[in-house]
Amino acid sequence: MVRCGSVWFRKYGNFIDNLRLFTRGGSGGMGYPRLGGEGGKGGDVWVVAHKKMTLKQLKDKYPQKRFVAGEGANSRVNALKGSRGKDCEIPVPVGISVTDENGKIIGELNKEKDRILVAEGGLGGKLLTNFLPLKGQKRVIHLDLKLIADIGLVGFPNAGKSSLLSQVSHAKPAIADYAFTTLQPELGKIVYNDFRQISVADLPGLIEGAHMNKGMGHKFLKHIERTRQLLFVVDISGFQLSSQTQYRTAFETIILLTKELELYKEELQTKPVLLAVNKMDLPGAQDMFHVLMNQLQNPKDICCLTSLNSPRKPNLLLL
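Now predict its structure.
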C-alpha cells in the first residue's frame, strides 16, 4: 500500500483471473450388515468466498489444484451410525463464477461467505445399497473471476489509460508509445482519509471485434460486467492499430467502444459512462476537440460507420 497525497492506493499484482480445479466428494463408509448399521456419508466440496483471497494465493497454496473431501466412517459395533466425512472448502475471492467442464454455470459468489456445493459426498452403506458405500462425485470446475470495481477504464490500445492511472495514484503500470502495454487487468483502491474508498480497474485495450473474442476480447470484456461505472479513455488524435487497419477518429472510437460493449452484452448499455478525452497537449488538439464536441452534440448529422448506432452521450472529462 502506498500513499498519494491525502489518499492511499493499494495495488494488486501478479493477476490471475481463472483456474481449473479437480474436486471429489468423499466416499461413504461401509455399512454393518449383521446389525443393520449405516456407514457415514462422505464429505462435500464447497467453494467459499473470502474478501482477502486471490486466485494467485489459492494457486500458490494448492499447486496441485486438487480438492478431495473426507471419507465417511464405517459402521461398527460400538458406533452403528458411522460419522460423516469432513467437508472440504476451497477459499476463493469475491466475484467468482463457477462453471463445469462443459461451460455450464454452477453458481456465482458475489459477496463474502457465499458458498456453492461443487462435489457431493457419496452415501454410506445401508440396506438400500446392500450396505456397500457409494463413491463421491468427481467434478472438474473452472473458477472465473470478474473484477468488482467502482470504475473501469475502457479504451483502445495506447489511449492513455495507464498514464491516467499513474497520474491519479502511485500505481506504476507499464507505459510506452505502442499498443498493448497493459496485458492484464490492474485493480487499485484509493482510500481517502475519511475512509471512503474507490476501486479502479485498468483494463487491457480492446480492439474492433472484441465482442467476437478478437484480441482476447471476452477475457477482457468480462471484467467490465461488474464495474459500477465506466470511464472511456479516448485519444483526441484517433486510433490506428497498425498500417494494415483502418484509421479511426476520436468520434468513431467512441462509437466503436459503445458498440463493442453492446454486442458483447446488451445490459452493459445501462451502465453510467464518463468520457475522458486524452492527449490534449498534442498539436492541433483544440481544433480536433471542437470537431469532436460538434459530432457528439449532433451524432445523427454525421455519416460515420453507418452499420453502427449513434453513441450514447457520456459526461466529458478533458485531460
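Residues 1-13, 173-183, 210-217, 303-311 have pLDDT under 50 and may be disordered.
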